[in-house]
Amino acid sequence: MVSSTIACFLTCGYTESGAMQGFLRRINGAFEYRQYLPNKTRKRKGSPKLISRELSGLTGTELLDKTLHIIEQNVDEAQNWGAVLYEDDADMLYSSETYEEIQSYMTHIQHSVRNAVGRDIPVIVLFASPEIESWFIADWSNGFEYLYSDSGVVDDIEYSAAKYFCHRFRSWIISTLQANCRDESNIETYNCLYGTGYTKLSDQIINFFEPCSLQAYIHSDKKRNLDHEQQIISSRRLFYSKKDYGDIMLRNIDPNVLARNCTIFFAVAYKQLVALNPTNI
After folding, report:
1. Strands (E) located in 22-176
2. 41 DSSP assignment
3. pLDDT digits (tens, 9 = 90+) for 186-209
4. Where does residue 172 fall: left (phi above 0), alpha (psi -120 to 50 degrees), or beta otherwise?
5. Predicted confidence (pLDDT) per residue in 107-141, tens digit
6. What residues form DSSP beta bridges with 85?
7. Would 91 disulfide with which of 130, 191, 201, 276, CB 3.0-4.6 Å?
8. Could you tell me which residues come within 8 angstroms of residue 247 by beta carbon, excluding any fewer than 6 positions away?
9. Which DSSP string do the residues of 201-216 spell out, in sequence order?
């Protein structure tokens, strides 16, 4: 059977809901990526994007349970799928699981999905480790740097000030976040001392933009630029929100760069997806 459809079940966040299908097409454009979970975000002009209240934030075992329920509701349609892609954040595992136990959980996901479909179908488990923000750091020039300097989102400061901010933001990430990685060259290992607890990567980034934190860090630069500092501190567009900014970066980052820099989880799923051919499944 030739099937060019990959059924997608994604962690129910705003970043993934609106932009993941396009991201996957940049990895392997031979397939149609049909999103079954979450519902596509709805947006009228001037209105906020919305994910249904029932699904918003769904992750971990609740995400898997919902995935299996949807498959059971669409089991006849599932016979025409070429593969299933299951994407989630890995951080929900960090507080209690070892790396080996995470691998075992990924195998459990694959077996559960195949049982629900009723046949031996390729199941790709794509973990954003620890959260999708790690991808925006790993491909810096197309991720956070692009967002704050080149995307047009931050339109209330001069370009030179935006570049100055990106330089300072990158320095903070290296000294604060990547320094807290088991492997400083791989952001996937952020706070990855398995079994010792986890401080959310996204919360760290959000807190960086709090006025007191941002001002203190910007002012700590030995080579201060007072004009740039004032623009940065006064900007109403310099903040971080998954809902407002996440999908902008997901639409722009390069999966090939991520595969080189995120070698524990992303690269494995990337290679599996690249290898799929509609004529062979």
Report:
1. 32-37, 83-89, 123-128
2. P
3. 999 887 655 556 788 999 999 999
4. alpha
5. 999 999 999 999 999 999 999 999 999 999 999 99
6. 8, 124
7. 130
8. 14, 15, 17, 18, 19
9. HHHHHHHHTSHHHHHH
Q: What is the DSSP string of 133-175?
A: HHHHHHTGGGTHHIIIIISS---SS-HHHHHHHHHHHHHHIII
Sole residue written with tokens 């006025």? 211
Enter the tokens of residue 134. 């790690």
Q: How far apart are CA 119 and CA 79, in angstroms?
A: 8
Contact criterion met (CB below 8 Å) for 5 and 32: yes
Two structure tokens written together for 74: 């669409």
Task: At 11, list the tokens.
Answer: 């962690």
How many residues in total does the chain contain?
A: 281
- In the structure encoding, which two tokens stand for residue 244, read together? 């407002």
- Report the chain's C-alpha Rg in angstroms: 20
Helices H, strands E: what count in the chain? 13, 4
